[in-house]
Amino acid sequence: MKGPPRLNTSILLFLVLRWRLSLQTRGRHLKQMTNRFIDRNILLSSARCCAILCLICVIDRSVVFAESHLTSNSGALTDFVSFWASSRILIDGGNPFSPLEVLELQRSLGLSETKPLMIWHPPWTLSLLLPFGAMPFQFSQFCWLLMQIFFILLSAQTLWTIYCRDAAPNAYWPWIAAFTLIPTWLVLIIGQMSPLILLGIVGFLHFQRKNQLYLAGASTVIISIKPHLFYLFWIGLILWLWKQRYWRIAVGAIVAGLIVAVIPLIIDPAVYQQFIDLYRFPGQSTPFNLPAPSLGSLLTLYVPHGNLPIQFLPPLVGSLWFLWHWHKHKELWNWYEQIPLMLLASLTCSAYAWTYDQVILLPAVVHGFVMVKRHSDSWYKSAPGLLYIAANGCYFAGKLFVTKDSYYFWLAPVFLLIYLGACTFSRSSNSPTPVKIA
Length: 438
Fold this sequence. Notes:
By secondary structure, the protein is mostly helical.
């Protein structure tokens, strides 16, 4: 019997090549049809939305990442419970700085602690918190998380446009810079308001660069929510305004400051006196009594000082350094160049700050990313990149085993040294200056 007919090798090769060419042609037609009906920017925006949703799902409030998590009968509570409770009490006509009233409301949410979690920020902070106090707690806490994520992503994207002129409009490098900084994750888990301070800093940079000075001044009001974090900014701003006579910034700051200061005063005329009385409340520990991861707090713990406010010695040293730095650079002062170093110096020489507050170092992180990436495609293989990864890795690993924040006083000084190393790395390259904005 004859077997089945055999295909000639050349014919078989021709059929395979024709089939592959047909697939390529169909692929090109499909791509053209997709591009005609679906914009690439829409696809990228959808991908970013999916990434944000994944980020929200990843942030589990029951993680043992931070000791400031509060236990409750209904689950884990974050520091946001203090913001919500104070704003809700103010809306209801009570004293937002009364430990007794705050504890009663927090216990209604299932808080099992014996002491309330108080808000220690100045009263004008309540103007920004009132919308959240008007909502139910669970929904308000979720909206707060969404807002914090949005502020961080917006700040990262804006900083990238400031420090990298030739950046692609849909570059993902800002996101990498933001979320490789471990304090970013920590501040979202805890529910603190440091991303608001970051937004104020970035807003000041953005509007000052655009010569929208009234809005730049208004942005400083947001920074004043935690004025001690970036204390060098206030010294620099006063000196700069006096030299440059940019009074529109001062006008914007005064008008915006008056608006947010008067709103809680209208609801509760005694709110500022109540804030002062909070620091005099018997048996109530103030933030300055807590072991914070700062040089100022470290001095109070290990150096005999009696009644001397020795925790303010590092800020004094930082202020003296800044006066010398200002005198050296005042003729060619550029805020976008100076703020990263000022931020690092402020947190390094801080009297009181927590590691989650270091999310405000994002301008320094983005600036460092740009400097290193301009001179090395594999930024993570450069010395500053490796040190940055190592510092965040050590902090992350340490937090898994030792949650007490006071042990991480070294983090801000290490970030300062890494940033100075990135600047040295950039200057040692033969390439042009990495950051130059007209």
